TrEMBL record:
SUPFAM superfamilies in the record: Glyceraldehyde-3-phosphate dehydrogenase-like, C-terminal domain (SSF55347), NAD(P)-binding Rossmann-fold domains (SSF51735)
Binding of NAD(+), residues: A125, N190
Biological process, per Gene Ontology: NAD+ biosynthetic process
Biological function: Specifically catalyzes the NAD or NADP-dependent dehydrogenation of L-aspartate to iminoaspartate.
Chemical reaction(s) catalysed: L-aspartate + NAD(+) + H2O = oxaloacetate + NH4(+) + NADH + H(+); L-aspartate + NADP(+) + H2O = oxaloacetate + NH4(+) + NADPH + H(+)
Aspartate dehydrogenase domain sequence ranges: 168-242
Organism of origin: Anaerosphaera aminiphila DSM 21120
Record's protein name: L-aspartate dehydrogenase
Entry keyword annotation includes GTP-binding: no
Ranges for domain Aspartate/homoserine dehydrogenase NAD-binding: 10-121
Entry keyword NADP: yes
GO molecular function, a single term: oxidoreductase activity, acting on the CH-NH2 group of donors, NAD or NADP as acceptor
Length: 260
């Protein structure tokens, strides 16, 4: 059986999960290339997983991948997304925050249609997309998402203050829409944008973020209210591993005879 060619954008921890899962979970794919910001690290990744280290998106696309999976950054999606689709590859996106920009989101959908390619949104640390999308089809809905984090996880962000390390109980540090949240925390709230895209939209999905004393990991509570359907979804993840594995799940679903 001819294998599908897979390329990766990003050579960090999450891409390691995807590459490491190929033999056991994704035998239908062959990893052909990887593109990263640091070429030395990219070469080390390529050597470990027996693929080509690429220094540009053009070099990566010259390998003719059937699917390109991104596990890098919002900037990578915005910089490379159109080129990937126009270059003949389907695109698996993990940094969903890029699509909080509704103009960019519509533009990417148009490019995918014109080139007869697909954009697959990996769920990251969130779940319940099927329920969210179905509820949104049935009637107008309201959507909100609450997030609990540790103070340390917000370091090097505009929300961080030294006093947060001494919080007792919990303290709200953000309240607004998911579109506003992604501008402040471009690498922290991809799951919120994914939820919004699957339901009420980034401009209409409310979000609040609480810092919780001695908290480890990430916890999200999604609430959907509609005329006929309402749901609460609670998801906790101790580490970011689930984001990498969600890319594996998308790739596995693509080739599976049964699609969930």
């Amino acid at each position: 059986m001819k294998k599908l060619k897979l390329a990766l954008v990003g050579c960090g921890y999450l891409s390691e999960i995807v590459a490491g899962a190929l033999d056991r979970y994704l035998p239908e794919y062959e990893l052909v290339g990887v593109l990263g910001r640091n070429f030395e690290k990219t070469e080390a990744f390529a050597k470990k997983y027996n693929c080509k280290a690429c220094s540009s998106i053009e070099e990566l696309l010259s390998l003719n991948p059937d699917y390109t999976a991104e596990a890098a950054s919002v900037e990578s999606v915005k910089n490379y997304g159109e080129k990937i689709l126009k270059g003949g590859s389907n695109f698996v996106v993990l940094s969903i925050g890029a699509f909080a920009d509704s103009d960019f989101y519509e533009q990417m959908k148009g490019v995918a249609r014109e080139n007869e390619k697909k954009i697959y949104i990996a769920s990251g640390a969130v779940g319940g997309f099927d329920v969210l999308r179905t509820a949104a089809l049935m009637s107008p809905i309201t959507a909100s998402i609450g997030s609990q984090k540790s103070a340390k996880s917000l370091k090097n962000t505009p929300l961080y203050e030294e006093d947060l390390l001494n919080v007792k109980g919990k303290k709200e540090v953000f309240s607004g829409t998911t579109k506003e949240a992604i501008k402040i925390l471009p690498t922290h709230v991809n799951v919120a944008v994914a939820t919004a895209l699957a339901s009420a939209g980034p401009e209409n999905t409310k979000m609040n973020i609480d810092v919780v004393e001695d908290f480890v990991g990430d916890e999200f509570k999604i609430e959907i209210q509609g005329e006929e359907v309402s749901t609460d979804i609670n998801i906790y993840s101790k580490t970011s591993k689930i984001a990498g594995w969600s890319v594996v799940a998308v790739l596995r679903n693509i080739v599976s005879p049964v699609v969930f």
